[in-house]
């Protein structure tokens, strides 16, 4: 019995020693894992040209354009008998109120092409056809003078000068018939601009207002709720009669959102 007990104790002792020793013994060597970042390779994309923002012609830009060039348009009217309203409307339409690429790059405000005999500077621009030749000027004012010379030196426009400087509608349709533009709605577009901004006020402007340093400037006002012609006239210190005359109004009726010129 004693022999069995001793044998049992010895076996347990050996077992416990072996179990305890297992805690410190590493039977397997662990491999060290090193994580490496792999660079992703993407296909190269072609670099596209920057798309230019579309030109927008709103009342603010157009009014600013009219105020800037009204003086020279009136001056050309008295020199060459071309309605100032027509000159300004063409400038607004052809140049996008001075914001078109052709106007910015070349100071060409009337879309006049090189034509035969042109000896000045030129620039290529896509219009009816790709890469057409257009005239280039150093200053916008030169473009206005060349516009007048372009009309008075060509026989096809001769009949327009018999209309005088007050018949803007006759000029609008006459320019289209004479071949100034290929757009069939060109006359209507000019007339719309003239009416919207009341450009006929410049057709009635005398040469005395063109003294050196005298700036031709037109203010505009958008009719608000509760406004009357009397309240607007009083606000800008003008008469109701003058306000109606400048805006071509036959009555005292005005509507909210309507643009009125203050002169």
The ordered string of helix (H) and strand (E) elements is HHHHEEHHHHEHHE
Whole-Å distance between the termini? 133 Å
Described by strand count, sense and barrel closure, the largest sheet is: 2 strands, antiparallel
Shape from CA axes? elongated
Which CATH top level class of the domain at 59-112 and 138-215 fits?
Mainly Alpha
The gyration radius over C-alpha positions equals 41 Å
Q: How much of the residues is beta strand, in percent?
A: 5-15%
Strand order of the largest sheet: 1-2
Overall mean confidence score, pLDDT: 78
Number of helices: 10
Q: Which residue ranges are poorly predicted, with pLDDT under 50 across at least 5 consecutive positions? A: 14-26, 37-59
The CATH architecture of the domain at 59-112 and 138-215 would be Orthogonal Bundle
Structural class: mainly alpha
**How many beta-strand elements?**
4
What is CATH's topology name of the domain at 59-112 and 138-215?
Answer: Lysozyme
Helix content range: 40-55%
């Amino acid at each position: 019995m004693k022999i069995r007990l001793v044998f049992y104790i010895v076996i347990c002792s050996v077992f416990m020693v072996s179990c305890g020793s297992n805690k410190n013994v590493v039977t397997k060597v662990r491999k060290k894992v090193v994580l490496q970042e792999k660079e992703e390779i993407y296909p190269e994309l072609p670099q596209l040209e920057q798309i230019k923002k579309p030109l927008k012609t709103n009342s603010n830009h157009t009014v600013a354009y009219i105020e800037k060039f009204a003086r020279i348009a009136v001056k050309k009217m008295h020199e060459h008998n071309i309605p100032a309203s027509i000159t300004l409307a063409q400038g607004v339409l052809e140049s996008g109120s001075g914001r078109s690429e052709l106007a910015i790059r070349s100071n060409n405000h009337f879309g006049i092409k090189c034509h035969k005999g042109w000896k000045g500077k030129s620039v290529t621009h896509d219009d009816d056809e790709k890469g057409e030749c257009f005239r280039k000027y150093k200053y916008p004012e030169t473009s206005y003078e060349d516009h007048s010379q372009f009309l008075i030196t060509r026989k096809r426009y001769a009949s327009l000068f018999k209309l005088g400087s007050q018949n803007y509608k006759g000029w609008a349709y006459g320019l289209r018939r004479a071949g100034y533009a290929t757009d069939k709605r060109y006359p209507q577009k000019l007339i719309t601009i003239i009416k919207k901004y009341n450009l006929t006020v410049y057709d009635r402007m005398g040469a005395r207002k063109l003294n050196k340093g005298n700036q031709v400037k037109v203010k505009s006002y958008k009719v608000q709720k509760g406004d009357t012609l009397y309240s607007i006239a009083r606000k800008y210190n003008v008469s109701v009669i003058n306000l109606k005359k400048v805006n071509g109004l036959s009555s005292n009726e005005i509507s909210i959102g309507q643009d009125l010129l203050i002169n």
